[in-house]
Write a structure and sequence with these properties.
The chain is of the alpha+beta class. It has 2 domains: about 10-40 and about 205-375, Multidrug efflux transporter AcrB transmembrane domain (Multidrug efflux transporter AcrB transmembrane fold); about 50-205, no CATH class. The chain is built from 13 helices and 6 strands. It has a 4-stranded antiparallel β-sheet with strand order 2-3-1-6. Strands 4-5 form a two-stranded parallel ribbon. Strand 2 (about 70-75) and strand 3 (about 80-85) form a beta hairpin. Helix 3 crosses helix 4 (about 95-110), helix 8 runs parallel beside helix 10 and helix 9 runs antiparallel to helix 10. The chain is elongated and about 110 Å long.
């Protein structure tokens, strides 16, 4: 299927506005990175703790930020769940920092405890220790093993969907095997239910974060280096340089946009950048492949004419592929939720930049080099001819 047939647009004749725009975007992005002291790394790279917290109702994001201070809060696609991230400067303080965050959440969103145990976030051992003596006083004759088994059964019930760790009423426990009215009454007397539960905690130490950051840079450079070697063998070395410069240009501008819009760079973003590298390189290779074919067929034409012809011939494919891909990632950006937001943002920016860079960055580099090489050859040929004329 071809959207455009027999087109004859002078793409290279319009190259300068795009080259100037590329330079402006590159300078703006690098300038922003310099002013802000580098990219804004996520917890994956700088080290820290991430807590996944489920609320009984819609998470009050602004109130969470006010309660916890300098943290990042993102709503998850999972219903009524948020991801809370905090930087971790010292791994030794992890447990204390995590408890402090939990205490602040409990103070803000919990109920007055009156010395009771908060049940939704309690561990099996905490429930066992809390209920042992009150159950004995209430006449519930349970051995220590039976009490531990009962606590385990109750918490398993609490943690399974659709509750997923968050009970709304203690009466829900009446269906658990072994929970008698006496036991249920003791639980109500000794415990209370908060409106949130910390479902999961993930930790990345500062050293690990630094290692991940270095590895991400090395992986990206290795990908560019591998592509440089591949294209140099498949085409000419100048094609390889032009393609890698174009892809590097796409990556720098995309990272610059992250800095300009104050967005974090995480492992998801690195995955998006590597995807962008492959996608943009593939788009460039398609055009270069057509240029190589047309050079063999049209030896009398100038290289600029051949490149324009090649871009026009691949225009339908470029618009179809890039257009459909762009619509897909745009849908992810608009409707994918906070988890996919930075990933899709990188692809939205990268695909737009990468599509025009294949035509207006990579191709002009090839033309500039060939014009420079031809000029040197003509100059080298003119000097001996001039010297021969003088001798005659």
């Amino acid at each position: 299927m071809e959207l455009f047939k027999n087109t004859n647009f002078d793409f290279l004749g319009k190259k300068w506005p795009f080259i100037i725009a590329s330079l402006a975007l590159t300078v703006a992005g690098i300038g922003s990175l310099v002013v802000k002291g580098g990219p804004k790394y996520g917890i994956d790279f700088r080290g820290g703790a991430v807590m996944y917290v489920k609320f009984a109702g819609k998470p009050p994001v602004d109130q969470i930020r006010r309660s916890l201070g300098e943290v990042s809060v993102q709503e998850m696609t999972t219903e009524n769940e948020v991801m809370i991230g905090t930087e971790l400067k010292d791994e030794k303080t992890l447990d204390a920092d995590r408890r402090q965050m939990a205490d602040k959440l409990a103070a803000t969103f919990g109920q007055p405890s009156s010395g009771k145990l908060e049940f939704n976030n309690a561990s099996k051992q905490a429930v066992t220790d809390r209920l042992r003596e009150p159950l004995q006083r209430a006449g519930a004759q349970l051995t220590d093993q039976q009490l531990q088994d009962l606590a385990g059964a109750v918490l398993d019930f609490r943690n399974t969907p659709p509750r997923s760790g968050l009970l709304s009423s203690f009466d829900q426990l009446s269906g658990v095997a072994g929970v008698t009215p006496v036991i249920l009454n003791v639980v109500k007397q000794e415990c209370y239910l908060s409106s949130f539960v910390i479902r999961q905690v993930q930790v990345v130490g500062p050293k690990v974060g630094g290692d991940l950051r270095r590895q991400a840079v090395l992986v990206t450079l290795a990908a560019l280096g591998g592509m440089l070697i591949y294209i140099a063998f498949r085409f000419e070395w100048i094609y390889a340089v032009a393609a890698v410069v174009a892809v590097f240009h796409d990556t720098v501008i995309t990272v610059g946009f992250f800095s300009l819009f104050d967005k974090e760079i995480s492992l998801n973003v690195v995955a998006a950048l590597l995807t962008l590298v492959g996608y943009s390189m593939n788009d460039t290779i398609v055009i270069f492949d057509r240029i190589r074919e047309n050079v063999k067929l049209s030896r009398r034409e100038t290289l600029e004419t051949i490149i324009n012809q090649s871009v026009n011939q691949t225009l339908s494919r470029t618009v179809m592929t890039s257009g459909l891909t762009f619509l897909t990632v745009l849908a992810l950006f608009l409707y994918g939720g906070p988890v996919l937001h930075t990933f899709s943002f990188a692809l939205v920016v990268g695909i737009l930049i990468g599509t025009y860079s294949s035509v207006f960055v990579a191709s002009p580099i090839v033309v500039f080099w060939h014009n420079y090489a031809d000029g040197k050859r003509r100059l080298a040929g003119a000097v001996p001819a001039k010297q021969a004329g003088k001798r005659g």
